[in-house]
UniProtKB/TrEMBL annotation:
It catalyses: S-sulfanyl-L-cysteinyl-[protein] + uridine(34) in tRNA + AH2 + ATP = 2-thiouridine(34) in tRNA + L-cysteinyl-[protein] + A + AMP + diphosphate + H(+). Residues 147-149 are annotated as: Interaction with tRNA. GO terms for molecular function: tRNA-uridine 2-sulfurtransferase activity. Belongs to the MnmA/TRMU family. CDD domains: MnmA_TRMU-like. Residues 208-272 form the tRNA-specific 2-thiouridylase MnmA-like central domain. Disulfide bonds join C101-C198. This is tRNA-specific 2-thiouridylase MnmA.
């Protein structure tokens, strides 16, 4: 196959490209320039897609003896990921930019260009596996549960899965990948993993958002509507947050309070007891299936709402315009804007963006 290897500059994508070469594929390496701030350098292990990463990717490609290019996707990234991130927060939702990047950049813009240029598939260093069946390819969890990245790939469609290649999916651990990189002479063998949001490398999401959308004083209220404090911008808060709340009125029971809801139109933040974070139902209208769609409108599954959270047994209800999920036990601290990924065993069935949540604790409780 003709393979376009997406090389981030990290150890995973370098080893994935090496395995593609070793398997006999015709491989070309490409690094995506997602920022036009050309002088940007990595700080510690935060961020990715910096000039340092591009140089690391080039060195790996040279060692593997494959052609290497840098493609400027900064405009698409700004529009489809960064602008979406800002608008979601302004709407009171909690977005996952890694999901949007996979959906809009790596497996849409990049894959589309790869196919136009005659490539058969895009290779990445994601930890996930593809299993062929009579109905087509299925996306499954990786062999290493600790490194499994199937959650952030839940946005991929059947057509996209047909043109993807994940060489690391069956690898038993990240330690094996690092040892292999060392043996191959790859300089990134011990390079730290990237963390946090790549376009906010210092990790200060609140400060970054304040620069983008400004500040505006608003009220913090409890579930009854009583004012208990103030804030400088509802966009700086997300459901489940405890730190950063400036509450002038203590709770009657003396217990700490958490963000339960963000209302951007009125610039209001609603707080309450931790128990009120329990969610008995979630639903959303923006959904997709990673392969064949479910045959039944109602079925049992597992639902996962964060990249590193545990999957929870649930019942899913699918209509023409919505997916609704009722977990067997309440989920904790779910926010609109998060992505819910549905699994059947190790298989990724599909995903939806959460638009609505229903608390397991009545307002008057």
């Amino acid at each position: 196959m003709r393979i376009l290897a997406a090389m981030s500059g990290g150890v995973d994508s370098a080893v994935a490209a090496a395995r593609a070469v070793e398997a006999g594929h015709d491989v070309v390496g490409v690094h995506l320039a997602l920022s036009r701030a050309g002088g940007t350098l990595r700080t510690g292990s935060r961020g990715c897609c910096t000039i340092e990463d591009a140089l690391d990717a080039r060195r790996a490609a040279d060692l593997l003896g494959i052609p290497f290019y840098v493609w400027d996707f900064s405009e698409r990234f700004r529009e489809d990921v960064i602008a979406d991130f800002v608008s979601e927060y302004q709407a009171g939702r909690t977005p996952n930019p890694c999901m949007r990047c996979n959906e809009k950049i790596k497996f849409a813009a990049l894959l589309d260009r790869a196919i136009e240029l005659g490539f058969d598939a895009v290779c990445t260093g994601h930890y996930a596996t593809l299993i062929p069946t009579d109905a087509g390819l299925e996306l499954h969890r990786a062999a290493d549960n600790a490194k499994d990245q199937s959650y952030v790939l839940g946005v991929l469609t059947a057509d996209q899965l047909a043109h993807t290649y994940f060489p690391l999916g069956t690898t038993p651990s990240k330690a094996v990948v690092r040892a292999e990189a060392e043996a191959r002479g790859l300089s990134v063998a011990q390079k730290p993993d990237s963390h946090d949001i790549c376009f906010i490398p210092d990790g200060d999401t609140r400060g970054w958002l304040a620069e983008k959308v400004g500040t505006a004083t608003g009220e913090v209220v409890d579930r009854s509507g009583a004012v208990v404090g103030s804030h400088e911008g509802a966009h700086a808060f997300t459901v489940g947050q405890r730190r950063g709340l400036k509450l002038g009125v203590p709770a009657a029971d003396g217990k700490p309070r958490f963000v339960l809801e963000v209302r951007p139109v009125s610039n209001t933040v609603v707080v309450g007891p931790k128990e009120a974070l329990a969610t008995r139902e979630i639903s959303g209208g923006r959904f997709s299936w990673a392969g064949a769609a479910p045959e039944e409108a109602e079925f049992s599954c597992d639902v996962q709402i964060r990249a590193h959270s545990e999957p929870e047994p649930a019942r899913a209800f699918v209509s023409a315009d919505e997916v609704r999920v009722v977990p067997d036990r309440p989920l904790d601290g779910v926010a609109p804007g998060q992505t819910a990924v549905l699994y059947v065993g190790t298989r990724v069935l599909g995903q939806f963006t959460i638009d609505r949540t229903v608390s397991a604790v009545p307002v008057d409780a």
